[in-house]
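#lab-general

N.A. 3:47 PM
ok so I finally got the sequence cleaned up, no stray characters, all 453 residues accounted for. can someone with queue access submit it? mine expired

B.Y. 3:52 PM
send it over

N.A. 3:53 PM
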Amino acid sequence: MRQAMRSGALRILFEASVGYGKSIIIQLLAIAYSQAGKRVWVLSNRSAVVDQLSKRAAHLPGVVVMTVQAADKRRIELAAKPADLILIDEAHMGGSAVQYGRVMDCAPNAKVVAFTGTPRPETFQTFPCHIKARGARWLTEKGFLAPLRYVCPDPLDLSRVASRRGEYDEAQVMELLQERRLYANALETYRAHGHGAPTLGFCVNVQHATDTADRFRKAGHPCEVLTGKDRPEDVKRKIAALADGGLLFSVDKVSAGFDLPVLRVLLSLRPTKSEQLWVQQLGRAARAADGKPYGLVLDHVGNTLRLGTLTEERDWRTSDEAKAQRITEAGESLTVRQCGECMAVFETGPACCPYCGANLAKDTRIPRAESVRLRELAEEEIAAQRQAAREERKRLGQTIPQLRAWLPSRTPGGAHRAAVDTMRKRLDRALRDGDGALEAFCRDQLQRFGDGV
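B.Y. 4:20 PM
back already:
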């Protein structure tokens, strides 16, 4: 990052996995610029993230920590004293791109560093200088993140669910959830794997979270629901209960900028098409903590099968065409496989399940683009074969019954004899010309309808 700044880069994207320490880097940069007498704006789209950053940097001279929404309202004031450095945390979060642009315009000469672990393709356009730090795989191997285990007991079939603005249609998903025994399955896996361990459930919307919590309570499992309307003291109380081994259901309030290392289990009840959202959710259970050998993902909606694991390598600039190379026609990611015995999901590679030891059959799945290509080739081949068959039938000519139907005859049976004689003449011609196909056709007709050959 220093090299990029010294080379004159003004718009820098710093990509680093959850657990890397992006907020610490923000703090160190803010300290350095503050000590040099420079002005610094620290921004985020979420008030929870801003609250965390405020504890690190708001006390520093010349440093202002605020939401981008608040900064947008203060543009006249900010433009009067423009920043030398703008730091943006969780830059992938949508909904404020225009606001970020207006705020950055208030300090046109400032260096801007945007931090995220899950950048969107358009983020690279806004911040052309890309710095990629350590990923989740390296952090996990070195012990900075807890490894994750994934179980997909009975994923939803979302093949008929429509998409709206790049996400599954919420109403159709809710209808599908009501039709399935999803709650019963979730209760079963929670009792088996999550009971007594800090467990966070992700739901489709507030109504879904409330309904799910009601079902769990009726089954004897106390739980809470966290929404964006909760007062700060209620949020604090519910998070404390979660840390103490409780069960908490939420929508996306804790999908990013939420740090609770003791969290052990994720209960995924919200299907998504967004890799960014899925990776952010997984990151909540990947924080390392004493006595935590791994985080467990109980995925009842198949996000792991479609979107992969936290530790797989991703290029967030990947085009839709490139993504099609790692997705099957059924929508499964080719980067992962599922064990049919224990239902665990893991990255593609081993010949045996790394958890139960079951032997895995050969992976015969192919990319969606390849499936489409093969199907198109097959359709073309079938059409070509049919056309060739029509042309061959035309070349071979009519059968004896067809000839008999139109050949003139003045005596009983004369039409049949005329048809047979015609077929014999065609057989003689086939023998002279060496036409094997016509010879076989004529012999078959004479054997079946004539007096033999």
